[in-house]
Structures are given as structure tokens and as C-alpha cells.
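Researcher: Please predict.
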Amino acid sequence: MFEKLTMGRRGYFLGFVVSFGLVGLALALQTKFNLDPCPLCISQRIAFMGLGVVFLLAALHNPNKFARKIYAMLQVVAALIGAGIASRHIWIQANPDKVMSECGAGFDYLIHTFPASRAMQLIFKGTGECSEIGWTFLGFTIPQMSLAAFVGLGVYALLVLRYK
């Protein structure tokens, strides 16, 4: 059963649906619980969308053996980037005293005001709003669940590579 889900285009398409489904879930939580996403939350959403796009491209392309390895590498890299962002966010939430105590500038302000390299540096530094824990599920914060999802999707990408 699992092998059938991970084979070929079906497997890649499932990765796409899960990646964008997680972004949809984040937007639903944001709306339902009135949660304002911090710069690192937005960065994680972008990483999920990037990963989803790579899954979708692979589904549309239906790659041969060599190209499947390239797609798997891109998917794992995207998942690792997302996992790194989520890990940084988890660290900031666990160590709020080590980041600014007041809320910093928002994502839009940083992107539109600073050069790209400086904006990225400020985003990953984190702000006071990144240290807030606005919602949990079974004791897990959103960044902790995102980290698990990125790891899971990275492993899934390797399974799709295996089952062609």
C-alpha cells in the first residue's frame, strides 16, 4: 500500500499536496486563532511552498532514474533549509532572553526596506515576536511541528526516489 502511494507521479503529487496543505493549515490556524506570523513563521511557509513546487515539478516531469536523483536532492535540500529555519525558531522560543524582548520589524518591512542580504540576516536573527508561543497542540509549538514535517517530507522524498 505505502509503496503504491510513493511510486512515480503519484508519490511526487502527494508530496506537493502535503507541502501546500501544511501552508493552508498554517493560514487556517492564523485566521481561526488570530495569530500574526513572525518573520521566521513566514520563512517556514516559503520553505514549504518551495519544497511543494519541487515535488510538483517532479510530478509533471515524471523523471527518469538520473533526474529522480536530482529531484530528490533538491527536495532534501529544501526540507533541510526549512528544518534549519524551524530549528532556529525553536531555539529562539526556548531562549527568549537571548533575543530582543520587544517586537521587531515585520517581514514586509524588512524585505522592502533593507537590501536582500541584510533583510535575510535580520529575519534569521529573529525578533521578540518570534519568541512568542501563540498556540500549541499536544504540547508542541508550531515550529516544533514544522520541524517534524520538514524531516518527514525529506525522508518521504528519499522514499519516493527508492520506489519508482
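Model: Strands lie at 136-137, 140-141.
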